[in-house]
Amino acid sequence: MFPLGSVLFPGVALPLHVFEPRFRLMMNECLTEEREFGIVLIARGSEVGGGDQRHGVGTRARVAHVEALEDGRLLVVATGVGRFQVDEWLPDDPYPVAMVSDLGDDEPSPDDVRSAEAAVRRFRALLSEYADVEVLPEGFALDPDPTVRSWQLCALGATNPLDGQSLLATDDPALRLRLLADLCESGAQDVLALLSEGDDFPSLDD
Questions:
Q1: What is the C-alpha to C-alpha distance for residues 102 and 106, in angstroms, rounded to an integer?
Q2: Domains (ranges, CATH) in the chain?
Q3: Is 84:60 a contact under the CB 8 Å cutoff?
Q4: Is residue 191 pLDDT above 70, yes or no?
Q5: Integer Cα distance of 90 and 85 in angstroms
Q6: Cis (ω within 30 of 0) for the bond into 94?
Q7: Quick one: pLDDT band at residue 206, thresholds 50, 70, 90?
Q8: Percent of the chain beyond pLDDT 70?
């Protein structure tokens, strides 16, 4: 298990900077044995050194690309495979380990996907007027598969980890996409309010 300060969605790529010895060991084992690993959002605490509190729903991941640096650090691109529920956390020995159960995903309806996509595109178009945000990042293509596309939209529309975790933990795809659309509409209203006041939109990294 790899606890992080960010959320990975199924079908979406996430860059990882692996520098702690325990996670370098874990990643080398995953590469050697062609194993998947889990990514969960940290609820409280630090990514470094352990002792953190973790959310109970995460995403299985596999390594799509890895680059080893001279000092032993690894630059990894992980791709989300599917969701899981943590049943039990085991001792962190030598790295975080848990017993998990897979969570299936029903296919969302095309209408729900289209509605959510319209909300995401509108929100990101408004954001692009204030921050270094593209409506669709360069080289990013939305997948024709409705399930993968819905998760890609979640990644594009969730501007903070807690919103992303709420989307990831929502089992019903219709409810998830409705929540995504609501989050984007709320964000769009915030941007429009800033527009009317002439203020700059804060960085998404703030």
A1: 13
A2: 2-103 (2.30.130.40), 110-197 (no CATH)
A3: yes
A4: yes
A5: 14
A6: yes
A7: very low
A8: 90
DSSP per position, the chain: -EEESS---BT-EEEEEE-SHHHHHHHHHHHHHT--EEEEEEEES-SSSS--EE-SEEEEEEEEEEEE-TTS-EEEEEEEEEEEEEEEEEP-SSS-EEEEEEE--PPPPHHHHHHHHHHHHHHHHHHTTTSS--SS-TT----SSHHHHHHHHHHHH--SHHHHHHHHH---HHHHHHHHHHHHHHHHHHHHHHHHHTPPPPPTT-
Phi, psi of 197, deg, nearest 5: -95, -10
Give burial (CB, 10 Å; 0-12/13-18/19+) of 77: middle
Distances (CA, A) of 168 to 128, 175, 177, 203: 25, 11, 11, 23
Residue 63's contacts (CB-CB under 8 Å, 6 or more residues apart) are 27, 30, 31, 76, 77, 78
Give the list of residues 6+ apart from residue 154 with CB closer than 8 angstroms, or none.
9, 164, 167, 168, 176, 180
According to DSSP, the β-strands at 57-68 and 74-90 are: antiparallel
In angstroms, the CA 67 to CA 24 distance is 12
